Amino acid sequence: MLDERMEETLNFQFNRELYSGYLYLAMAAYFEDQDLSGFANWMRIQAQEELSHAMKFYDYIVRRGGRAVMADIEAPENEWESATTVFEQVYEHEQMVTGLINKLVDLALELKDHATHNFLQWFVAEQVEEEESASGVLQKVKLASESKSGIYMLDQELAQRVFHPPAEE
Length: 169
Ligand code: FEO
Hints:
Layout: H1 4-33, H2 37-63, H3 83-110, H4 114-144, H5 148-158
The structure holds MU-OXO-diiron.
The site of MU-OXO-diiron has 7 residues, from helix 1, helix 2 and helix 3.
């Protein structure tokens, strides 16, 4: 049985993961419009990952006897100045998500909810990867932006990204 405060906060994170997917789809659509299909592919995969994160929260809430609640998902931005500003936002967004996961961990510790604390460790590790990946692409975009061929080469590289569903616990 989940503590009420824990259930609400897990549902809030479920919603934020869906929002993250929505944000990355908006970024995918921006890149499709710029004819950068590799960049768009990277964002589509990122959106798929976020949906899988959301489903992890959904499933966990249900397994603990709680109720997954669908709340409003606000519209993200739809326009950016450049590929660099997009990836700056991705990196900032992932740092913000890390902060939310850390707050969830703090709450699990406060409530002595060891099961939720254990569940959240996957996300603690995932956020290290998410920040590393966002920061890595941001550095490449900054370098590639110095020339048109650079952006073309990076587009080819980002086209290679494929979706790997997260392993079952
Ligand atoms: Fe669900 Fe990008 O963290």
